[in-house]
Amino acid sequence: MSDFEFKNNVMHAEQVPLPALAEHYGTPLFVYAKATIERNWRLFTEHLPPPHRVCYAVKANSNLAVLQTLARLGAGFDVVSGGEIARVLKAGGKAERIVFSGVAKSDLEIEEALQAGIGQFNVESVTELEQISRIAVNKGVTAPVSLRVNPDVDAKTHPYIATGLERNKFGIAMADALPAYELAQRLPGLTIVGVDCHIGSQLTELQPFLDAMDRMLALISELAERNIFIKHLDMGGGLGVRYQGETPPPVGDYIQALLFKLEQYREQTGRELALYLEPGRAIVANAGILLTRVQSIKANKIKHFVMVDAGMNDLLRPSLYQAWHNIVNVENKLGVAVQGDIVGPVCETGDFLGQDRTLIAEAGDLLAVHGAGAYGFAMSSNYNSRPRPAEVLVSGEQHFVVRARETREDLWRTETLLP
Ligand SMILES: *Cc1c(COP(=O)(O)O)cnc(C)c1O
Fold this sequence. Notes:
Layout: E1 4-7, E2 10-13, E3 16-17, H1 18-25, E4 29-33, H2 34-45, E5 53-57, H3 64-72, E6 76-79, H4 82-90, E7 98-100, H5 107-116, E8 120-123, H6 126-139, E9 143-150, E10 172-173, H7 174-186, E11 190-196, H8 207-225, E12 232-234, H9 251-269, E13 274-277, H10 281-284, E14 288-299, E15 304-308, H11 317-321, E16 327-329, E17 337-343, E18 352-360, E19 366-369, E20 390-395, E21 398-403, H12 408-411
Parallel strand pairs: 4-20, 5-6, 5-13, 6-7, 7-8, 8-9, 9-10, 9-11, 11-12, 12-13, 15-17
Antiparallel strand pairs: 1-2, 2-3, 4-14, 14-15, 14-19, 16-19, 17-18, 20-21
Helix pairs in contact: 5-6, 8-9
Pyridoxal-5'-phosphate is lined by residues 57, 59-60, 78, 80, 101, 198, 201, 236-239, 278-282.
């Protein structure tokens, strides 16, 4: 089921025809379907009643209205910076439902997080443990901590988004986990609440999650033998979505498989554990498209170039990880198909949205780039002095601009000329 479907040969976002949005707000334009975000969220929460918890990974799409939509559903949030904490609070999210991940937290970010009263720090090194302890003691508070442990499993995903291998920068090596927990127990100002891992993004198989969970549960047992009792196991995010032909496990199957392991653990040890998950992509990727207009088409001896008004500064994933996004004409029409690359206006050969595609398109047509709800606007930039696109959230027949298109003045708002 999708909220971006053709009705009378014109693609709609929920009940709104995309050409009307392009007319109203201009292009390039990110369009989000609120119904999809809500449906994806419920797929997670219906399988994970409290004390289990779902913490949306804010970095996938941090627009305030997206966060607000999830906050209204009672969401938890996984953040990786002080800026993301501020966004969650601004959008009405609850501080005690925030988990704070990230490899290089600054003193200021830790102070802000303690001030806000977040639920948990996912601590990525022994130095960070000492840092949080020092700041918490200074403030006279206790910081709830989980250690992010690197299970050394191969997520079988793109190397840039694999995070759970020994050679990656993330987390504490499994071999160092016990002494790190013992240190956490000794340090003042800390209270141990959980164990955390996150092995990568866009995973399309269950097995790496299950392998990681086995290793985490074994660690939790070893900790219990040392009288360190864990309340919850945070298995991170990473569940993949379908961009092309991928067949990621359905959300329900994924959660049931993890809960089954938790149940086995309870039967063996008599101890209860809550499961935390941090999905980002699986909540928002298919809730968004990037709407872009064809500027011109040219051909050389080998192929066509369909030049559109969105580029790698708007949607970086194809250039950064050779990611594949489905790209379609928003009008289902007859005509001559072009074969070649869909490229943007940025002065880089790597600036493309799709390569070796076949579609019917001519100058002036609107194209929809699917799967742009996650790591789309969030990774955008002003490269080539291009103002970033507007973001629009659709709900039924209504549409709201949830981020205005940047203006020329926005480009240099924080710059100054010399006197
Ligand atoms: C990026 C990230 C996530 C979300 O990953 P998705 O693949 O979008 O689900 C979750 N947790 C942490 C720590 C992350 O860095």
